[in-house]
Amino acid sequence: MKIEIVTLVVSPRHAYEGRPSEGIAPYDGVETVDTVRVRAHKGLVGDRYFGTKFAYAAVTLIAEESLNWLEGELATGPFDPALARRNIVTRGIDVDALARTSFVLDSGQGPIRFRSLTPANPCAWMNEAFAPGAHQALRGRGGIRCEPLDDGELSVGPATITDVTPLPPEELTRRVKAAN
Fold it and tell me: What is the domain class of 2-11+31-179 according to CATH?
């Protein structure tokens, strides 16, 4: 399936820490990139989740269509896709349908296999990042968390997603339990 990678976000630190009432921590560094290196079982080089024990959730994806829907639902916007703090923002695929599957993503530098065990549920910070009501509205549309199974490189622009395969039930709990 032909898609597009709209935005890549690689951040060395959290912007949403503490309580939402404390506000978003300012950061003057560069977080959106055109290309990122992917490392198997580690994540995106330079990202805050790279090499943590939560490798099964090291990379996050969200569909730009979910953010566009949110703009219409809340009658606000336009929204900067990077505010969702998802590493990869796509256009042209229902990202939420990729939860609990393995798939191959290729932006022209070679295929990279991913395994998605869990959705990326939105948090209360979405009300601060986008608008009041975003947290509730994004439930079921918050994207996915996944683990890269291959080394490679991803770039903004045209891409393909292929070989989408449901994960066996025993695979869905094994990795999450191992991280705890």
Answer: mainly beta
